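ok trying again, last paste got cut off:
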Amino acid sequence: LRNQLTSNIYSINNNDTKSPLVIFLHGSGERGFNNNMPLLANDIPKKVYNYIKKMGAGVLVVPQTTWSADMTGWFRSEFQEGLMQLINKIIVEYSINRNRVYLIGLSNGASASWYLAQKYPDLFTAVIPCSGYVYNEGKKFLGEKGQGRYMEPTDEEAKKLLNVPIWAFHAEDDPTVNVLGTKLIVEKIKKFEGNNVKETIYPEGVVVPNPHASWSLAFKENNVLDWLFSQDKEKVGWTENNYEY
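nice, full thing came through this time. structure:
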């Protein structure tokens, strides 16, 4: 049970069309054995649920990793594998529109979102990572754990993300994950002429009382969910043959 991935799934479909799918990845603080924790730590799942309810169609998945003494969370391979199995199962069972699979991640979940987006760029339609960095196996951490730790992005990672619409959020004075975790990957993507990425960096003293929680302001942006749900691979010519995950 300690390695088991649990999840909350909310489905709404009032119009008999294929549904968009949103996967919400929590941060390290929401690891555990009570799958309500990712729902209670912030109001983002509730905002997404209310949004899809208003649209009349959508599926929201809020999975949870179990607790461990370390802070690896979504970095553990068994959870990544379990998550991908869950996503693939939901796509089939809930009649998901494969052109509209969205990923939101906070902190540890944001770093996992960067990782998953570059590993499966043909799966995720758009990504919103808040206060993260591009995690990947074999890379060294820079900075101390809980004190501005992050990983430097590689050219290869940036190139894989060129066609993935991304809106990244971070606070300049984040004490937990260095803001360079966001700035450097956005800079690299743009260096390779990727035009589907944008960032919102909040100045020092704006995200209070916890500067790590950039998501507390990110989802107060009136158009952030409008932007997310407007992304559709069909608009750029994707077909079923494009999917290779």
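cool. The chain has one domain: 6-242. Residues 6-242 form a domain with the Rossmann fold fold (CATH 3.40.50.1820).
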